[in-house]
Design a protein that fits this description.
8-stranded antiparallel beta sheet; alpha+beta; single chain
């Protein structure tokens, strides 16, 4: 896995109300419901001036490690001066170093598999901002590719 230094990414989208956790599958339920809202309300279509058509799913504001509560955000990358539509929020993923993983296969199982490998790995995670990038490579759910970026120290 190659380490990558990324510049800040400003996003506009939806933030999960409150925090969630991986305990008892709670994050799968909470994050899944936020995705449903994002899709049902065509949030990506409401964001003017997107830098691309990718959708970012961000895990941040960790209370500790992966076993502790965290915040979740789904959005699209926009320029710094983009106008935030009513009812949406903004989040800036800061510049930092990431380790990139590739989820490949059937969705959403391939995403779950990557996260399981991250959790069982010796990656020196910083637990600041981690995110997944869904682009044209993830359109076919039976043969998808999704980049997963894990913030490292």
């Amino acid at each position: 896995m190659k380490n990558t230094q990324l510049e800040p990414i400003r996003l506009i989208g939806l933030r999960l109300a409150g925090k969630t956790s991986n305990e008892n599958g709670q994050s799968s339920k909470d994050c899944g419901e936020l995705w449903q809202k994002f899709e049902k309300e065509a949030i990506a279509d409401q964001i003017a001036g997107k830098l691309n058509n990718a959708i970012y799913a961000v895990y941040f504001d960790y209370d500790g490690d992966e076993n502790q509560p965290f915040s979740y955000f789904i959005g699209c990358a926009v320029p710094e001066n983009a106008t935030v539509p009513t009812g949406l929020q903004t989040l800036t993923v800061p510049s930092q170093t990431y380790q990139r993983f590739l989820a490949k296969g059937v969705m959403p199982e391939c995403i779950t598999d990557v996260w399981k490998s991250v959790w069982s790995s010796n990656v020196n995670r910083s637990f600041t901002y981690d995110f997944e990038v869904y682009d044209e490579r993830s359109a076919n759910w039976s043969d998808a590719e999704v980049d997963v970026f894990i913030a490292i120290d």
